[in-house]
Amino acid sequence: MINSFALDWYFIAIILFIGLYCMLVSRSLLRQLIGLEIMSKAALLAVISSGVLTNNLSLAQTVIITMIVIEVVVVATGLALLAKNFRVNKSVDIWDLKGLKG
Amino acid sequence: MERGLLAYILIPLLSAVIIPFAARNKPRLADILANVTLLAGLSNLAYLLLNANSFAEVPGDGFSLLMVFTIYLVALCVVFFSAFFAGAMPNRQAYYCLLLTSVAAMCGVVTTSDFFTLYIYVEVLAVTSFALITTDDTSAGLEGAIKYFLLTFPASVFIIVGLSLLLLSIGSFSFESVQLFLSAGMPGGTVLFAMGLILLGFLIKSGIVPFHAWTPDAYQGSFSPVSAHLAGIVTKVSGVYAIIRISMLMRLSEGMAEALAGTLMFLGMLSIIVGAIAALRQKDLKRMLAFSSISQLGYIVLAAGLGTPLAIIAAIFHLFNHATFKTVLFLNSASLEHASGTTDMEKMGGMEHAMPWTSWTSVIALLSTAGIPPLSGFWSKLLIIIALWAGGAKVYAMLALLFSIVTLAYFMVMQKKIFFGKKSEAAETASEVSAPMLAPVVLLSAVIITVGLLFPWFYTYLVETIAKRMIL
């Protein structure tokens, strides 16, 4: 049991850092969003893994389904922002977002 | 979830559903519906708060009730202001729908009693904020919203990982079980790590200094009444409220959470310093107010990190005061933008003659922010500094006092550049905004003065009704 648990969290950490890396190195806003998605998938895996370990799978599943719904809404809003940004600025480069300074 | 306060979540939500249908081609009807919903809620809450008998029947602690009252107060002022704000607002119905949904989500945040529900409401609040920031379709608004989005999403990831660790170690998300676990004195390394991750998420969401990159951009870029809504209440509720809650839980752990509390205090102090110094050199009015907002949030987090009962009361009181005076300042910046067409402080000047009411309400709000007696901001800062001194953090107390003077300095610079001095071109053509647009600002200024003058009574009230029912 503990071995599979350790393996779970090993993968969770790896996926989390893949997402973080994707966010850090890419300039395209779309890729940043993909990196964010990967990170949040790792977080959801963490929830289900702790549910399995504590024999509390039903609570973990309810929580996860709600979180997925919330996440879909957030990502849909984010994609709407990116699409609108592309229409207004004709660019998805994150370094083009420098209109506000002070 | 407190059942007694559920109506304050559901009624704005119902109104938000009704407005797009009922007022599809009648923008005035949308104004009226939104205002009536919030006014009814506010008068109901005022009755509850001022009537000791009915107050006793409300379940839960008084902190939630005071926060719900603040949310309704600020939201009503913003909605009333934007009904008369003739800026570029393409879709009134959608705007009110989003604003009322965000009010419902904020009430959910402050009345919930477990971390998972808290997370859900915070996400709902974040989604409505992204949409509200881009109300006027400018590229600045989009930029602010995208920066906000890219920084709050990782914060949610941290919160979810924290929640999973909480599930792993306690098996439940409720405040009560965390409190029981921490006060039992068992070694709680995992729980404290989970608390640390959740705190990190909420620190990002509230824009405390190492994570403050999104705050000035989002406030500066957004539609003007929306910046008042965001700065006045949204970021306080989505971030700082949870920080105060967690520090109320952490102080039960008998010294195990010292590192976390120390980090919170350090970050609070850092925010005060960086926010105040950055505000000194800003040229854009809204951006300067945003940095001032970061600096004032620093005071709240500093007091929350200390965690003594007096410090928690002071943090809550400063949260309330910050909501009132920052809303006044941001609504005044919207009025100035409306009158002169710019938010650049260099281009304004001598607006005092054209806009006396706006000028004087700004003076009241900024003196309250800087902590000049007898206005309300003085008392909350005094309480914070007394609590810090009594709690042994004497260096922090001295620094907090010092940077209170810096606050006064940058606000004096702002007041001189905008309202006093030589008449500029903008001031020649500008005229005072209409009376309905002044009404919310005057109301909030009256609240600042009243709370300041009646402070002894207000303090007794805070201690008697609110602090006694809190887990301190």
Please give the alpha-carbon distance between the first and last residues of chain A. Answer: 54 Å
Instruction: Characterize the largest beta sheet of chain A: strand count, sense, and whether it forms a barrel.
Output: none
What's the shape of chain A? elongated
Report Rg of chain A: 17 Å
As a percent range, the share of helical residues of chain B equals: over 70%
Structural class of chain B: mainly alpha
**Total strand count of chain B, please?**
0
Average pLDDT of chain A works out at 87
The largest β sheet of chain B comes out as: none
Portion in helices of chain A: over 70%
- Could you tell me the number of beta strands of chain A? 0
Polypeptide structure, described:
The complex is a heterodimer of chains A (102) and B (472). Chain A has 102 residues and is mainly α. Chain A contains three helices and no strands. In chain A, helix 1 packs antiparallel against helix 2 and helix 2 packs antiparallel against helix 3. The model of chain A has no long low-confidence stretch (mean pLDDT 87). With 472 residues, chain B is mostly helical. Chain B has one domain. The mean pLDDT of chain B is 86. Classes of the chains: A mainly alpha (102), B mainly alpha (472). Chains A and B meet through helix 2 and helix 3 of A and helix 6, helix 7 and helix 10 of B.
List the helices and strands and how they pair.
The complex is a heterodimer of chains A (102) and B (472).
Chain A: H1 2-25, H2 29-53, H3 57-89
Helix pairs in contact in A: 1-2, 2-3
Chain B: H1 7-22, H2 27-50, H3 52-57, H4 62-84, H5 92-111, H6 115-133, H7 139-169, H8 175-183, H9 189-206, H10 214-221, H11 224-250, H12 258-280, H13 285-306, H14 309-340, H15 351-354, H16 356-370, H17 376-390, H18 394-418, H19 425-429, H20 435-453, H21 455-466
